[in-house]
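Example 3.2
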Amino acid sequence: MANDHGLTIGFPRMYNEPGERRAFLPPLIGELASMDGVDVYVEAGSGAGMGIPDDVYAAASPRVHVVDEATAYRQDIVVVLRAPGRQRHDPGGRWGGQARHRVGGQVRQ
């Protein structure tokens, strides 16, 4: 999802394990958003397991946006802590339910 500013990066929330506590930290999110032409979209509740409220992410930069899951996944780049299950990483079925990543310029499953 390109924007008027350039590149967008989405950070969806991870739900893989009961009691999941991993999250991207607000200083990292703010640093990415400080790069020229980058807007960052963090799924609401991403830091809940670590006690980080959404407003802390939003305060990291005016270019950090707290959004719903679908919006986080619609960005130019989507960053996850690990490949989630089929229903999470390919909600629209675009890739036949397979995780994809780029290796040496080629997309691999």
